[in-house]
Design a protein that fits this description.
- The chain is of the alpha/beta class and 402 residues long.
- The chain folds into two domains: 205 residues, UDP-n-acetylglucosamine1-carboxyvinyl-transferase, Chain, CATH 3.65.10; 191 residues, UDP-n-acetylglucosamine1-carboxyvinyl-transferase, Chain (Alpha-beta prism).
- The chain contains twelve helices and 21 strands.
- The strands form six sheets. Strands 2-13-15-14 form a four-stranded mixed sheet, covered by helices on one side.
- Helix 1 packs parallel to helix 3.
- The relative contact order is 0.14.
- The model has no long low-confidence stretch (mean pLDDT 95).
């Protein structure tokens, strides 16, 4: 499909999608502990719709498609349920590792079998885990493994003590889980590399919870405004105080020639008078979801940069580092790796009209490259990939031309 957006200037207001990361955690906790919370501003993302569907399903075979959070959270969830289920997923999901989480659950006494290739989905879970205790897990593969364990901890008779070994990847997502649980009345602590959960005693006074707007969606608007002439976007209800680690964007804006202004009903984003930094260094260890967008933005503005913390991008919905390398080459941009460090040279960036960009059916790759359509017409297929986290993305982009 042809894509091109050519606004002279724009000043729009949008409702960002609700955070699927928050919503998916709340749904697990709501179902597992019978909290009976009314969820307001629910996420309409494909991942959250799928999570709700599978939690309500009576089938003993559950297809998690390509939703990593859904698969990993449900792996722990069904380990403590008195049910036997098989979790499967897309071809890509079946190449995404689950070993660290399964090993931790097996150590605690769960019964789980691999249905095909060891260490990868699909898996069969024979529920009934009850005891709890202490478990160690490597923190570098996926924070979702650790969040999944933390959420079942209070369900276990002895609670759960999780010791995280090695470097912790995407730590803010673990902190999100802990803070949400604490706000809901769970006795949980996260100190240094240790999470301690006590058995659940229902003491929550909450009857409803409102899901925050998704901060990670803001990064694509960084691209749109930085690449345009005079655009302004008000994100309604977005706040600087957030349980989402990706709210770091509020602090990163200045480095990208942008500025936020707090207004009564949200945050206004526009260009600043400060140019985008060249030869900058970025650490995405805690914020891997922001990497595709910012790397493409720096490319489109012909910058050189250094990145660390991209390891987990290889096991996302696509191999995102490979996707970025492949698609950026189409613009004469080179992203290279040397001993865990990545280097961008976009000094010769050139976008040819009607370049076809593949998105690998990965929502963040799709949105990151789609914003290049604010420079010249491009082509992209599988536009529905954005539904995974931001179903209204294309409609919101059209607002810039109104």
């Amino acid at each position: 499909m042809n894509l091109f957006f050519n606004p002279k200037n724009f000043n729009i207001e949008i409702e960002l999608p609700a955070s699927k990361s928050i919503h998916n955690r709340v749904m697990i906790l709501n179902a597992l502990y019978g909290l009976n919370l009314e969820i307001t501003n629910p996420s309409n993302s494909a991942d959250s719709v799928l999570m709700q569907k599978l939690l309500n399903s009576k089938s003993n075979v559950l297809d998690c498609e390509n939703a990593g959070t859904v698969f990993r959270f449900l792996t722990a969830y069904y380990s403590v349920k008195n049910e036997t289920v098989t979790l499967t997923g897309s071809q890509r999901m079946q190449s995404r590792p689950i070993k660290e989480l399964v090993n931790s659950l097996l150590y605690l006494g769960a019964e789980i079998e691999y249905m095909d290739k060891k260490s990868f989905p699909p898996i069969k879970i024979f529920g009934g885990l009850t005891k709890g205790g202490l478990v160690k897990i490597n923190g570098s593969t996926s924070s979702q493994f650790i969040s999944a364990l933390a959420m079942i901890g209070p369900k276990l008779e002895n609670g759960l003590e999780i010791i995280i070994e090695g470097q912790i990847s995407s730590k803010p997502y673990i902190e999100m889980t802990v803070n949400l649980m604490r706000n809901l009345g769970f006795d949980i602590q996260f100190i240094n590399n240790k999470i301690i959960t006590k058995p659940w005693i229902n003491k929550t006074q909450l009857t409803s919870i409102e899901i925050e707007p998704d901060w990670s969606a803001v990064t694509f608007w960084f691209q749109i405004i930085a690449l345009g002439d005079d655009g302004k976007t008000l994100f309604k209800r977005l706040k600087t105080q957030s349980v989402q680690g990706d709210s770091i964007l509020y602090l990163w804006a200045a480095k990208l020639g942008l500025k936020f202004t707090e207004v009564s009903d949200g945050l206004l984003l526009e260009k600043s008078s400060t140019p985008i930094s060249n030869n900058s260094t970025w650490d995405f260890t805690n914020y891997p979801d922001l990497a595709p967008s910012i790397i493409v933005l720096l490319s489109a503005t012909k910058k050189k940069a250094k990145f660390i913390g991209l390891e987990s991008l290889k096991i996302k919905e696509s191999d995102r580092t490979l996707a970025l390398q492949t698609e950026l080459k189409k613009c004469n941009v080179y992203l290279t790796e040397d001993n865990g460090e990545w280097f961008l040279d976009a000094s010769k960036f050139e976008l040819q009209e009607n370049t076809l960009f593949e998105n690998y059916y990965d929502h963040r790759i799709a949105m990151a490259f789609a914003t290049l359509a604010f420079i010249k017409p491009i082509q992209m297929e599988n536009l529905e990939a954005v539904n995974k986290s931001y179903p209204d993305f294309w409609e919101h982009l059209k607002l810039t031309e109104s």
